[in-house]
Write a structure and sequence with these properties.
Blueprint (H helix, E strand, L loop, with lengths): L4 E6 L6 H12 L5 E7 L2 H6 L6 E3 L5 H8 L4 E4 L6 E2 L13 E2 L6 H18 L4 E4 L9
Parallel strand pairs: 1-2, 1-4, 2-3, 4-7
Antiparallel strand pairs: 5-6
Helix pairs in contact: 3-4
InterPro entries: NAD(P)-bd_dom_sf (IPR036291), SARED1-like (IPR044163)
Organism: Actinidia rufa
GO cellular component, one term: chloroplast
């Protein structure tokens, strides 16, 4: 049991805000065990999941912007992933394979490598006791 543990669930533009909402919601149901926090990339994403004070806004690609969310936590759960976008003009009825691209600044190297490294480095600096990394398929909107 992790009594009074703080779990920030960190996401980027590549893990849909709904993933964060579902995961923080599950932890918040167990207030006797956890104090959950979240990190989203934009104010718009924060509003999508309720805009609570325990949801921080920062960009995992910018190490300084995530420090406030990580300070004082016991465990970090990383839920980030680069999200490929489907190129416009794809017509499923023609049977062609869709083509995908990444937005500028949102390639796997920038999100999955640099972003996760920034989170881990910030957690180490804050003496976080545990780090859990989950791969999130950025295409899943559920």
């Amino acid at each position: 049991m992790h009594t009074s543990s703080n779990f920030p669930l960190l996401t980027s533009k590549l893990a849909p805000p709904l993933s964060l909402k579902l995961n923080t919601g599950k932890l918040k149901e167990k207030t006797d065990q956890y104090v959950a926090r979240g990190l989203v990339r934009t104010d718009e994403s924060k509003e999508k999941i309720g805009g609570a004070d325990d949801v921080f806004v920062g960009d995992i690609r910018n190490a300084d912007s995530i420090v406030p969310a990580i300070q004082g936590i016991d465990t970090l759960i990383i839920l980030t992933s680069a999200v490929p976008r489907m190129k416009p003009g794809f017509d499923i009825s023609k049977g062609a394979r869709p083509e995908f691209y990444y937005e500028d600044g949102a390639y796997p190297e920038q999100v999955d490598w640099i972003g996760q490294k920034n989170q881990i480095d910030a957690a180490k600096a804050a003496e976080v006791k545990q780090i859990r990394a989950c791969w999130v398929d950025g295409r899943n909107k559920s």
